[in-house]
Design brief:
The chain is an alpha/beta fold and about 325 residues long. The chain is built from 15 helices and nine strands. The strands form two sheets. The protein has a seven-stranded parallel sheet, sandwiched between helices. It is globular, with a radius of gyration of 19 Å. The protein binds coproporphyrinogen III. The site of coproporphyrinogen III has 21 residues, from strand 3.
């Protein structure tokens, strides 16, 4: 069993490190492939290249887990929206069409995502048995930001959208299908990214973030799929989230104090926390920040990671140094 799975399922304390957004942006070997593949969605759906990119950070740093190279927006794509990644701007989706969305059949959805499952199969064959292969989805709220109002990110437009709860229900159903298919293809852990949870007003957190995450985690538990949730930016509500959703693992963002997390986020495995910009600082400052987390969780099962994704401007040598520091750290 991979050590990530061991930590999540058996709650044992052992070393395990991977980084959100480890496959991509900051790696020259990724940028080289990317420069020859200008259509990002097509790149995500190229199983051979996706697998190659997934393994790039493993080959370079010998991390304990690989995360499949894909994107959270591949699900809105498979549900009928065109997805365009615009340089120096980000993703843009074609206008949402409720009727077409509600009309999408499971068979067609799965067929569109088949290259992702193939990429997972290829990667699992090439990846050492000791290492975990993580698959992921975007949580409904975070996907809705892109699907319904990416340009303005006006929360009220989404909260007041007609039939919003019908949309969320269909999203959850299809996200669960995507999780199950990724696991069947050879992934062994799922991470649920709710990157925009912090935009929700407190009174809406329960229905737009906590409940959908709970539905997904309950599905995973029923299927015995190890899961990690990342409700970024919800501050003290991490405690409420954890008490209700009870995921196997909880990824904390860089605004969460590790000591607070240790005392309040119980019966789960904490992952991450460190600010991604720490890797842009001098070595000593970076190590000091890392030590704060490693000391706090010294006696707890803990997955070393960051409080959000690696920044595109990160020097890969810094990543290497940080991993070495982690591997040599003894309380
Ligand atoms: O983690 C990994 O390395 C695996 C692949 C992965 C990507 N996106 C590839 C990618 C993962 C796990 C994601 C998740 C993702 N995608 C999230 C949640 C995590 C987070 O960072 O909050 C979100 C919100 C997205 C949506 C998205 N995709 C945005 C906003 C953008 C543009 C800006 C950016 O973050 O890079 C993307 C594009 C994207 N997804 C790139 C990569 C490698 C960059 C593509 C490029 O080269 O232009």
């Amino acid at each position: 069993m991979s050590n990530l799975k061991k930590i999540l399922l058996e709650k044992v304390s052992c070393k395990s490190v991977w980084f959100m957004r480890q496959a991509g942006r900051y790696l020259p070997e990724f940028r080289k492939i990317r420069s020859n593949n200008t259509n990002f969605v097509e790149l995500c759906l190229n199983s051979e290249l996706s697998s190659l990119i997934t393994l790039q950070p493993i080959d370079r740093f010998d991390l304990d887990s690989a995360i499949i190279f894909s994107d959270i927006l591949i699900v809105p794509y498979a549900l009928g929206q065109k997805v365009n990644f615009i340089k120096n701007y980000g993703p843009e989706l074609s206008p949402f069409d409720l009727e077409a969305f509600l009309d999408v059949k499971e068979r067609n959805f799965v067929k569109s995502l088949d290259p992702v499952y193939k990429a997972i199969e290829i990667t699992r064959r090439k990846l050492s048995k000791k290492k975990s292969l993580i698959c992921f989805i975007g949580a409904p709220w975070t996907l809705l930001i892109y699907m319904l109002d990416h340009k303005r990110k006006d929360v009220n437009t989404i909260l007041n959208y007609p039939d919003i709860h019908i949309i969320i229900k269909k999203l959850i159903k299809f996200l669960n299908i995507h999780i199950e298919n990724q696991i069947s293809a050879g992934a062994d852990v799922v991470q649920v990214f709710d990157s925009w949870a912090g935009l929700l007003p407190e009174k809406e957190l329960e229905s737009f973030c906590i409940k959908p995450n709970l539905n997904i985690v309950e599905f995973c538990k029923q299927k015995k799929i190890p899961n990690i949730c990342f409700p970024k930016g919800i501050g003290k509500n991490y405690e409420k989230f954890n008490n209700i959703v009870k995921p196997d693992g909880l990824s904390i963002d860089y605004e969460i104090d590790p000591e607070w997390a240790k005392s309040k986020l119980l019966d789960t495995v904490i992952q991450g926390g460190m600010k991604p910009s720490s890797l842009l600082k001098e070595d000593n400052e970076m190590f000091e920040t890392a030590a704060k987390y490693l000391k706090a969780f010294n006696k707890n099962p803990y997955i070393f990671n960051l409080g959000h994704g690696l920044l595109p401007e990160t020097d890969p040598d810094k990543v290497k140094k940080l991993i070495k520091f982690y591997r040599n750290f003894n309380g």
